[in-house]
Amino acid sequence: MTGAILAGALVGAGLYLLVRALFPRRPGLSARLAAFDAARHRDAEEAGAERTFPPLERVGVLRARLGRELVRFCDARGWRLQSVRSDLAVTDRSLEAFLATKFLLPAAVLVFLPLIGMYLELLDLGGGLLVPLWAGLLLAGVFFFIPDLQLRQEAASRRQDFRHAVGAFLDLVSMNLSGGRGVHEALMTAASVGDGWAMQRLRDALGNARIVGQTPWQALGGLGDELGIAELTDLAGALSLVADDGAQIRRSLGARAASMRTRELSELEGRAGERSQSMMVAQLLFCVAFMIFLAFPALIRLIAT
């Protein structure tokens, strides 16, 4: 009886999703405005900053098409996904490929539900449809959040590298200002020193700001908002306050570079302390296991007698 009810519920849900796909609901005015703003923002990003995301053709035509449909679905409902977009911008990945991955991984797990049921039957565990159904749903939920966890870890590592590059960039700008260069020339010269991805992003932002007529601090602030790096946004706000005083800019940049280095050193010391504590715990567990190994034969003899 339970299997028939579940089968009927799955069939009904499938028919409902089929009807909704064939006859979609017309979006309201707010959804249309949100989709228009998202499309305009995406076009401005593509025209303003010439960044190259991994091409969608590398991940397959069907996955690329599915990713575009999912992006349109999110835009039509006004889902901004701002934190996800910031993490993707830091890691140089496309939103289409990310959403397609989040959809395909749980779908692949659900497709293999019959195999899970057959495997349980071979093990003589029984349970009918309930055990494979709940196991498939649990695995689908786990696989749905795996891309988010991976993206957050990669984005955190990339942001840490970017902050390190920003500290070196500020030192170079301060040195160029001390040598008599102007603010714009000092920023471009400092950004052109390194060949890493962080310096490339800074160089592209400053070059695009010169083309569109923005100030360098506005470009740095926009880059900080796009990548989700608060230090870069704060730096842009501080530079906008002392834009007309070169000596004040030099002192401000030097102070911020020193504070960023101090913060980075404190974070490194904290991580080193955590690792040392974990090593001490591992050594303690190893010693306890060794003592149990030595005392086990004597305990067995006492219990046997």
UniProtKB/TrEMBL annotation:
Residues 169-294 form the Type II secretion system protein GspF domain. InterPro entries: T2SS_GspF_dom (IPR018076). The chain crosses the membrane at residues 6-23, 103-123, 129-149, 281-304. It is a multi-pass membrane protein. Keywords: Cell membrane, Membrane, Transmembrane, Transmembrane helix. It is found in: Cell membrane. This is Type II secretion system F family protein. It comes from Actinomadura parmotrematis. The keyword Heme does not apply.
